[in-house]
Amino acid sequence: MIKYCWEWLLYLWLLVYWTVTSVSISVVGTVLYWLLPQKYAHICGRFILQKDFQLFIFILKITGLLILEDEQLRSLANKQEAMIVAPNHVALWDVVFIVARVPNLICIMKESILRNPLFGGGASYLAGYLPVRSITQMLKLAKTRLKAGEQLLLFPEGTRTKTDVQWLNPLKGGGALLAKQAAVPVVPVFIRSNTRFFEKGWPFYRKPDFPLEINISVGESIILAEGESVQKFSLRLEAIFIDELSRSHPLRRVQNNEL
């Protein structure tokens, strides 16, 4: 009972902490967005978000609420060439763990999330993140960024993995089309967890079982083969995800009725 109450207190405190810090950096980011030249704005915005995310993860770790294995993300932080980093999308805060390690990524996100001050909306715009208003608009802006040598973070599922899906949602074709148009590699990233915390439909008032265990691994870069269609490439990428996520692993995803 003591442990249960202590976890609830920590969880509530972390929700308050996240709300206050996110709204604060959103306000600061909005001001700086209008004051700084774009070049410096992007550097500043990415630095602010990375440090905020790193501090949040550090607090989760020292309080014993999180066990995180993400060392393989270091390989992405050292890459300089243009690429699309493509993780499966298990939870609302997947971006936090990846950007904390790889700060130069430009996130492609739903506009509603990007504008939300609870997710550092102002700082996200400052960092140069791309809002998805339409597929056509997103592809145009993302292609321009890739051609300029920048790196994108794009969730090929398009949304968080549905609760009744075993491994991941069928992949959308936008990522594959973008990879073809910009002639850049796609790097699959595999996220595993012992919990469905912050999955699609998970309410904030529902406390998960702690500690949360999350493992993030990085796959080999893949490129479109000569003559390969966008559809076939997308199916090949999906098969890579299923093959990896279905492997025996302590954090392999299970159906809700098995939890």
Question: What does it look like?
Answer:
It contains 9 helices and 7 strands. The protein is globular. It has helices at 2-35, 38-62, 74-77, 94-101, 111-115, 121-126, 135-147, 174-182, 230-245; strands at residues 66-69, 83-87, 106-110, 130-132, 151-153, 186-193, 212-218. The protein is α/β, with parallel strands linked by helices and 259 residues long. It has one domain (2-258): 3-Layer(aba) Sandwich (Glycerol-3-phosphate (1)-acyltransferase). It has a 7-stranded mixed sheet.
Q: How many beta-strand runs?
A: 7
Question: Rg to the nearest angstrom?
Answer: 18 Å
User: Going across the major beta sheet, what is the strand order?
Assistant: 1-7-6-2-5-3-4
Helix fraction, binned, reads 40-55%
CATH architecture: 3-Layer(aba) Sandwich
Average of pLDDT: 92
In short:
With 259 residues, the chain is α/β, with parallel strands linked by helices. It contains 9 helices and 7 strands, in the order ααβαβαβααβαβαββα. It has a single domain (2-258), classed as Glycerol-3-phosphate (1)-acyltransferase, CATH 3.40.1130.
Main traits of this protein?
single chain, alpha/beta, 7-stranded mixed β-sheet, globular, 259 residues, 46% helix, Glycerol-3-phosphate (1)-acyltransferase
Note the topology.
Layout: H1 2-35, H2 38-62, E1 66-69, H3 74-77, E2 83-87, H4 94-101, E3 106-110, H5 111-115, H6 121-126, E4 130-132, H7 135-147, E5 151-153, H8 174-182, E6 186-193, E7 212-218, H9 230-245
Parallel strand pairs: 1-7, 2-5, 2-6, 3-4, 3-5
Antiparallel strand pairs: 6-7
Helix pairs in contact: 1-2, 2-4, 7-8, 8-9
